[in-house]
Design brief:
The protein has eleven helices and 20 strands. By secondary structure, the chain is an alpha+beta fold. Strands 1, 2, 8, 9, 10, 11, 19 and 20 form an eight-stranded mixed beta sheet that branches. Strands 12, 14, 15, 16, 17 and 18 form a six-stranded antiparallel beta sheet that branches. A four-stranded mixed beta sheet has the order 5-6-4-13.
């Protein structure tokens, strides 16, 4: 564990996930600010940043009008992740993604994807609409009524990315405190009382605070008197491992067009990870809290029960919604029953048998924000005093983290939380992302 020598910092960042470490790197590499990163776990990126599909998605499925910031973040971040991978020999497996139309109505969605991809800056040779016959030519086991092929989707390890950014940032002067949580907020005095796992407390004064704490972001925002209208529901996504006997027979990630856009349930897909391992999933099983992993998982905790935390009204509205509760039951079935998940994947992948499933794969938890209208579809940002809070930063969050970090810096500049005079946006030569930083600030603000 790294020691924190100072008790006063220009900027304190709460949360060492992929967004927190991207932000920490940008401040460490491109500013004169003294920065402290606080993380409640013993290392960075232990949860959502490492427990995801591991696919660096291109922005073909993001409506450039409704999802403008996320689409730009995904587009601008892709070359940055590629640069990081090349410079430090990190995983980069460009195997592509095929999204298939299971229903006739899905074909129209695929046609929209073609428009989105072009509008979001993807090159013409990066994507293609495929007929059933063209799809059979590249993926014989996949069945559909048509498909969209994103050729440059890439298998990566966002956990490794986050930890490498942290390593570089520490070398540039970043301070970090692991195994530490925010115990008390004294917002009027710009002070925090931090407590580590041993119960030892430390008071830290800050000039500006950025809350990117993932599952804990809403709870921390409330300590600043913000986010009072929001509640959080947690959904565990489980994967099942696929036998190596299918290696080479399916060569790309296979997704299907989502059925229910108003709920944060990912339709299951067939994914090939950066190391070649294959899995099917996920479902979206409602769990009691942010650490509701499977029994036996070292990250599983029973102490953080969040299901009935206030405000209760948004949750009660959903729990009395018959459609939602029916979907919850269906999602749980494919979490506990292997054959149920196979049945869902078999809608678009032929020949998958129970014997092809060798056991459970990765599981991760998505933290979904809700209010009185239901699920909140976008990331939510609130500023109070000298603090900025990011909540509901979900998919494609990891994909766009570097550019979204630049977006946050722009918001902090606009709000007067930091000074442009202390940001070094000039070309920094060989420094990672040095030639791109000033352009990111310009394009993401």
């Amino acid at each position: 564990m790294y020691c924190v020598e100072s008790s006063e910092y220009d900027i304190v960042i709460i949360g060492a996930g992929i967004l927190g470490t991207s932000l920490a790197y940008m401040f460490s590499g491109f500013s004169e600010y003294r920065v402290l990163l606080v993380e409640r776990e013993h290392e960075a990126a232990l949860h959502s940043s490492s427990r995801n599909t591991g696919v660096l998605h291109r922005p073909f499925y993001l409506d450039p009008a409704k999802k403008k910031v996320f689409a730009k973040a995904a587009q601008f971040s892709y070359p940055l992740w590629k640069e990081l991978s090349a410079k430090y020999n990190l995983p980069w497996s460009q195997n592509g993604t095929v999204e298939v139309a299971v229903r006739e109505a899905d074909v129209e969605t695929l046609q929209k994807y073609e428009q989105y991809a072009a509008a979001n800056g993807m090159e013409p040779d990066e994507f293609a609409l495929l007929s059933q016959e063209e799809l059979k030519g590249i993926e014989p086991l996949v069945k559909s009524k048509g498909a969209f092929y994103s050729k440059t989707d890439t298998g990566v390890s966002f956990g490794q990315y986050a930890r490498k950014l942290l390593e570089i940032s520490i070398a540039k002067g970043l301070s970090i405190k692991f195994d530490t949580a925010v115990e008390t907020v004294l917002a009027n005095e710009s002070k925090l009382i931090l407590r580590n796992r041993d119960g030892k407390e430390k008071t830290v004064r800050y000039g500006a605070l950025v809350n990117v704490a993932g599952s804990g972001a809403v709870h921390l925002a409330r300590k600043f008197g913000l986010a009072k209208i929001y509640a959080v529901l947690h959904f565990r996504g489980d994967y099942w491992r696929v036998s190596d006997s299918l290696r080479g027979r399916i060569r790309r990630n296979i997704y299907s067009v989502p059925r229910h856009s108003k709920y944060p349930f990912l339709d299951p897909h067939f994914v090939i990870r950066h190391d070649g391992k294959m899995e099917i999933g996920p479902n979206a099983a409602l769990v009691w809290g942010p650490y509701g992993y499977l029994r036996g998982d070292p990250n599983r905790r029973l102490s953080d029960i969040d299901l009935f935390a206030r405000p209760l009204m948004p949750k009660l509205k959903l729990f009395t919604n018959m459609e939602f509760m029916s979907m919850v039951r269906q999602e749980w079935k494919s979490s506990t029953h292997r054959d149920a998940m196979i049945g869902r994947i078999s809608q678009f992948v032929n020949g998958l048998k129970p014997g092809d499933i060798t056991g459970r794969g990765l599981s991760g938890i998505r933290h979904s924000l809700i209010d009185s209208s239901g699920f909140v579809p976008e990331a939510v940002m609130e500023i109070g005093g000298s603090s900025l809070h990011v909540m509901n930063y979900n998919s494609p969050g990891a994909t766009g983290a570097p550019a979204y970090a630049a977006h946050l810096i722009g918001k902090m500049l606009d709000a007067g939380l930091i000074s442009e005079k202390r940001i070094k946006a000039e070309n920094e030569g060989d420094i990672l992302w040095g030639s791109a930083f000033s352009k990111l600030l310009e394009n993401m603000t």
